Amino acid sequence: MKDPFWISISVHPHKNILVSCGEDRLWKVLGIPEGNVLLTGVGHTDWLSDCCFHPSGNKLATSSGDTTVKLWDLCKGDCILTFEGHGHAVWSCTWHSCGDFVASSSLDKTSKIWDVNSERCRCTLYGHTDSVNSIEFFPLSNTLLTGSADKSLSLWDARTGKCEQSLYGHMHSINDAIFAPRGHMIASCDACGVTKLWDFRKLLPIVSIDIGPSPGNEVNFDSSGSKLVKPLSWEHKLLSTEK
Question: Partner of 38 for a Cys bridge, out of 29, 155, 202, 234, CB 3.0 to 4.6 A?
């Protein structure tokens, strides 16, 4: 199972600031590189699991153990919208590149797509048989990627809510999965420290890297897509994705 006390960080798309959130139920905007607190958001009633900037950078989405997803105005730090509907803790949230939709994944074994304009759930994604620990939109598309404690990755059509493909190979709960910046690879990490790379076009595994036994809660590419950063407990591993 994913660690609820893991601290999540999101870097602003245009400014030298980042947002962090965690078990104290708060999110904080920090200046880079000084690390000074510029703004604090209060409103969730349980730990925060994830935070994600709107593509324009003027809003923030957060997910929480209180089963909600909240949207925030970053100018004032006010909550402008709360999405309710998940039955258990929400692990992850992500914006569509158009900025009109937010997707979330939950311990309740489902993912949801929320319409910001109508302020409603557009559809619920069913198919995973255990907690859905991560979710991400493929840039400029309607494809969603989820990683689950059922040890599988799934690719979904956000327009229909249907699962288009599932990928198997992990032997333990998948805690995070992400697309490479150029979109040709997927990286995933699991609860026993195994990181896998997948060919997104062929939907086949490329390589498996075991740097356990500590769990991997998050995995990310650098901006070039040639390096992979996997936070492991308090240590950061930098891995090359080049063959």
Answer: 29
Please state the pTM of the whole predicted model.
Answer: 0.90
| Three-class secondary structure assignment of the chain | CCCCCCCEEEECCCCCEEEEECCCCEEEEEECCCCCEEEEEECCCCCEEEEEECCCCCEEEEEECCCEEEEEECCCCEEEEEEECCCCCEEEEEECCCCCEEEEEECCCCEEEEECCCCEEEEEECCCCCCEEEEEECCCCCEEEEEECCCEEEEEECCCCEEEEEEECCCCCEEEEEECCCCCEEEEEECCCEEEEEECCCCEEEEEEECCCCCECCCEECCCCCEEEEEECCEEEEEECCC
Q: What is the pLDDT of residues 60-108, one digit of tens each?
A: 999 999 999 999 999 889 999 999 999 999 999 999 999 999 999 999 9
